[in-house]
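Hey,
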Amino acid sequence: MPYNVALYDSVIGVCMSEVLPELAFGELTEVVAFLMEIDKLKSIQRRTKVLGTQRQENTAEHSWHFAVGVMALAPYAGPEVDINRVIRMALVHDIVEIDAGDVLVYDLAARVAVQAQEEAAAERLFGLLPEPQRGQFHQLWLEYEAGETPSARFALVLDRLMPILMNLHNRGQSWVENGIRLEQVLTRNAFIADVYPALWQHLKRHLDHAQQNGWLK
């Protein structure tokens, strides 16, 4: 009997879409359920493509890149920044996108509109964990969102920096595809100048060149 690729893919797709029953792991059951739920983050696509490919990066990949970026730039963070805390923020900050989806950082109206969804998502997703992890994860997310502590502000810098660096090394791919203007990038990321002035000077120069290259309007 000939091998039917389409039929095989269809059957596999149905099987994979089925929700399997929760497995019991004793006192670890809630933690395992949480870990399986956040696997969905690998399916949330962002606007930026993986360098050298036509594939969009997913949010799990972005969170990993962000966390490693924190480690690499730790010597430049300043003594008031808790690097281990920033790494934890990097790993949990976008978990809410499982429910709320990814919203373009330059779409300010959409960012406001999605806020309530993200807050509800944080309640649901971190609520899958037992205490004290539930409170700890949720507090990290709230601290990051508020952006008021030195650690949160450094985290915000890195979160904004990574997509900018990707675009500068990818011919402005997501900027071009979404019609982003230089003014939008400068205005939305101007706080970087307060946290790390030297970094902002380098970014400003490269962003000016990106506009000259036609990567930004």
